[in-house]
Amino acid sequence: MESKSFTTGNRDNPNTDLHGSKNMMASHFLRALFRIQQTSTSSSSFAGRSRRIRRAAYASMAYSAGARRAWSRALLRKLRSRARLRFPRRLSRTARPQRRDMDQAQVLRKLVPGGPSMDYCKLLEETADYIRCLTTQVRLMQTVMDSISSYAHHPMIP
Amino acid sequence: MQHGSREVRGGMAASALHDDHGPQQIQNPGLHDDFFDQMLSGLPSAWPDLGNPKSPWDASAAQKLFRIDLAGKPPDESQPEAATEGLRYASYDEATMLASRLSQSQGSGGSSPTGEAMMLQLNNHHILPAVGLSRTAVGGGVGESGLLPLPLTLGSCGAADPRIIVETPRDEMDPPFESPDHNGGEELYNGLGGSIRAAQPGTGQHFHHPQNYGGAAAPAGVGQGPAASASSGGGTPPQKQKVRARRGQATDPHSIAERLRRERIAERMKALQELVPNGNKTDKASMLDEIIDYVKFLQLQVKVLSMSRLGGAAAVAPLVADVSTEGPGGRAGANGAAAGGNNDSLRATEHRVAKMMEEDMGSAMQYLQGKGLCLMPISLASAISSAACRPSAGGLVPAPPAPPTSAAAAAAESPAASSSASALTVQSAAADATAPKR
């Protein structure tokens, strides 16, 4: 994991434009989760299911942002092409510490969907929106997770 | 350059037109009026070559600026005083140079008509009206070749030539050429106590605006100028070089576009700084590092959460009620069930679902789905809607006692449920009881 520690949710994001899309994100994600649950059997691989869930997470992010954003458009394109979602989460970054990332913009471009085709200014803008959406999605997932766990630990009392 | 001088000359011409003084002799710097007149009278000459179409001056602008009726009335009396103030800060050197120019141009014998024409051609980069403009114009405008080595930045010609600003308090005269910034000019003028900026279209003219000049040449300085005319002649070229672009104030479109771009990037970085924790780095490179790390972290979190969720995935029978959230403007999913339908039909549906739930959860779910509804634990519904509004470190805020949605209420009313959550645990109980802790 990262040597630094971030806590999502410790910052009051101005969810100005996310408020409506947040609900859409939630509904989309939950429906996707349900579908995954229904279609997965005990024989499904753990990795396969986790991939599907992850894909569903990004899909709901992209749908919530719609076509307004370059990154969401790129993400939707990637999802629709059924390519495997790949994100450069190279832990090898620590193994290969560049003195100061030669081109940080390049690294950022790889992280943000649709990055390579943006100029620097637009890249920063898209990154900000992408971060907002990511934090919302992460919080959503955490929320669902918590409610599920709590139910599991509070079985019904007949 | 020429424009600036033109402006100055315009001003001067205006006065000159009406003050028929002989060869200028500035004997009394103290007598502003006299000085002004004298300066103006010296005007002549260079006017003809000021036919630069680049900065045609509006007659109206000129009028406004100089408060000179085109018919040729003399400037207000108030102007000289004001001008004096403004000019007070000018350096004597500059004044000298200007004065010398004046004397030079004097030789060519400016004609009134020319002067008037010049006035008409006043740059629409508005020179500060009234305040010492005419004065400064006088001081500044003398250059024959059109270049006024103006330490006197003619008052606030807003946009005309931001470069020339003497220690402008505002770095960007952003629309420098196109949209004269009157207010800025005014401020500048006031702030600097009269520093005047020569309005000059950015033709590469560089004015020397050392801070010590502070503004327009003092009348006194200018007054001395003519006396030292000799030195001024040779000083013209060096004076040109002294005036150079102010920090960040571009003279050509490229630098301006560059500056705009940089500002936009700075804005974006600021927005990112607020989003990213530890975003208080001032260093741009480290800020980018933080951003990159944070994005990676978030993506990693999504991955981890998708893995850890699998144990509890089986328990995700409840889904967000989603009656009308297909479109982008989806309302709260939890309220979706209540939305649209009238209460009666909803209640009937709820009863039906409750009954079905007793028999077979799955079919109940499917029935709901067919209707576009889903069951959802109340706590989940409220947590989701409040999660983003009240972020907590752990993610889930203990569900506040929010009014349950009808869908959730259906579960609550179901005989199997003592609490809404419990009803749904019927299903989850069937699944793995132990969800992995997050």
TrEMBL record, chain A:
* Biological processes per GO annotation: regulation of DNA-templated transcription
What's an example of a GO molecular-function annotation for this chain?
protein dimerization activity
One Pfam family from the record: IBH1_N
Which domain of life does the UniProt lineage start with?
Eukaryota
Keyword Chloroplast attributed:
no
Start-end of Polar residues biased regions: 1-18
Q: Where is this region: Disordered?
A: 1-21
Q: Which residues form a coiled coil?
A: none
What are the entry keywords?
A: Transcription, Transcription regulation
**SUPFAM superfamilies xref list:** HLH, helix-loop-helix DNA-binding domain
Q: Where is the IBH1-like N-terminal domain?
A: 26-82
Q: Which PANTHER family match?
A: TRANSCRIPTION FACTOR IBH1, TRANSCRIPTION FACTOR IBH1-LIKE 1
Family indicated by similarity = Belongs to the bHLH protein family.
Q: What is this protein called?
A: IBH1-like N-terminal domain-containing protein
Q: Upper lineage ranks?
A: Eukaryota, Viridiplantae, Streptophyta, Embryophyta, Tracheophyta
UniProtKB/TrEMBL annotation, chain B:
| Protein's GO biological process | root hair cell development
Q: Where is the composition biased (Low complexity)?
A: 214-231, 405-438
What Pfam families would the database entry show? HLH
Q: What residue spans carry the region label Disordered?
A: 1-31, 170-255, 395-438
Q: Please state every residue range assigned to the domain named BHLH.
A: 249-298
MF terms in GO: DNA-binding transcription factor activity, RNA polymerase II-specific; protein dimerization activity; RNA polymerase II cis-regulatory region sequence-specific DNA binding
Signal peptide positions are none
Q: Which GO terms describe its cellular component?
A: nucleus
Give the family this protein belongs to, as stated in its UniProt record. Belongs to the bHLH protein family.
Which PANTHER family has this protein been placed in? TRANSCRIPTION FACTOR BHLH66, TRANSCRIPTION FACTOR BHLH83-RELATED
The protein depicted here goes by the name Helix-loop-helix DNA-binding domain
